[in-house]
Amino acid sequence: MKVCKLIRKHSFKDIRVFEKEAISLKKLGYDVTIVAGKTNGAVFEPNLKRIKDPTFNQDQFEYKGIKFLTYDIKNMYDPHIGKMVNNLEMDTQNYFVDKLYERALAVEADIYHAHELHTLYEAVQIKKVLRKKGKNVKVIYDAHELEQNSKLLRLLMKEVDHLITVSDSIKNIYQRRYPSVPVTVIYNSPLYQQELPKDEHFQNSFVIAYEGVVQYQKGNPKKILQIADLCKNSMKNFRFDIIGYIDPTISYNEKKLISGHPAIHCKWVEYENLPKELNQVHAGYIYFDIRNINKKYALPNKFFSFLNNGIPVVVNRAMDMKNIIEKHQCGIVIDKDDPTAEEYVEQFLRLYKDRKMLARMSKNAREAMKNHYCWEKMEERLAAIYKGLK
C-alpha cells in the first residue's frame, strides 16, 4: 500500500514524521512518500537551517529508503482560512496556497497522513477528488497538538478516518469533540536505549540538561541562567547542557549571557547522536508555561529522551508529564505552575546529594520506557492503525 505523508511547517527530517513513523511504516512493508516543503529553494533541518547539499534540494529524492517530493512553501503560517472553509462547504477544489496539493495528488496513495491542520486540508481535498474518480483513500490526521475546535477543523474531521495525537489528555478532548472518529495516542518516544557505560567522571560531577529549542514558554532563558548560577556555586564539577538551540525570539542580551556563561554549554546534536550526548547527564530540566493549554498537556520528545537514557526529570505541573513521573517514580514534579529557579535548584540539589535516589529514579525511568513508552511499543500502535484502515 502507498502512504503519502504531508508536511509544511516541519523539516523533512522531523523526528516524529520521518525518523519514527516513516521509517517504521517502511519496515512494516508500506511504500512511503513524504511531500516536504522548501524555503528559498532548500529543504531545512529540524533546527530550521537550510540544507545546501544539492542531493536534498531536487524535486524528488530518496533518503533512508523513504521517497521525498519537494515544493516551495508559500504562506506557511497564514493561509486564507475563509477560502478553505468555503471550498469544503461548496465541495470545490480551487484554493491551494502552494504546490503541496499538486505533488501529493500525483502520488495517488492509499492513505494520506497529514501532520498539520493546514496540510489536513490538502489531504481531505485529495480524498474528495480521488473518490470522484472511484478511488477510496483514507486520511489520518496526526495532531501534534490540541487545535482549536474551529469551523475549518470540524469540516475536515468529517473526512478523517483516524486521528493520532501525542498525549492522553489531548486524546480525551478530541474524543469528546469528535466521537465518531477513532483516536490513538502515539507518544513522541525513541527506540529503547540500552544503558551505555559511564566514564570515570560521572560520579564526581553533576550535569543538568535541557533538550530542544529554548523559548520563553519552553525552558525559559532567565530560569536557565539563574539555575546555572545557583548550581555552579553549590555543586562540584557542575555543567548545564543545552542540547539544541536558542530561539531567534530570545533577546540578544540573554543569548549573550547564555553563550558566555562558564557553566552552560549549548550545541545542536543530530538525533542519532543523542544517546551518546545524554550519557553523562544526571538530571533533565523541563519548564513549560502551562498557561498555554498545549504546554499543560504536553509529552514532548525531550521528556521521553531523558527517561529513555535513564535521566530523572524535574518538571513543573504539566499534567501528563506529572502523571507519568508520579506513576513510575522516575523524576520530581514541582507542584506549581511557575516554579522559581530556586525551587528547581532545590530539587536538583536533592538528586545531587542523594545518589541512591538518583540511581533508583534512573532505573525506574528505563523500565518505564522499556515496558510502556518506547518507540517499539508505539510502532505496534501505528501498525494497528494502518491495518485497521485496509
UniProtKB/TrEMBL annotation:
The regions listed as transmembrane in this protein's record are none
Domain Glycosyltransferase subfamily 4-like N-terminal residue range list: 24-188
Name listed for the protein in its UniProt record: Glycosyltransferase
> What Enzyme Commission number does this protein have?
2.4.-.-
Domain of life of the organism in this record?
Answer: Bacteria
Keywords, comma-separated and alphabetical: Glycosyltransferase, Transferase
Cite the PANTHER family for this sequence. GLYCOSYLTRANSFERASE (PTHR12526), TEICHURONIC ACID BIOSYNTHESIS GLYCOSYLTRANSFERASE TUAH-RELATED (PTHR12526:SF629)
Which InterPro entries does this entry report, sorted A to Z?
Answer: Glyco_trans_1, Glyco_trans_4-like_N
Top EC class, one word: transferase
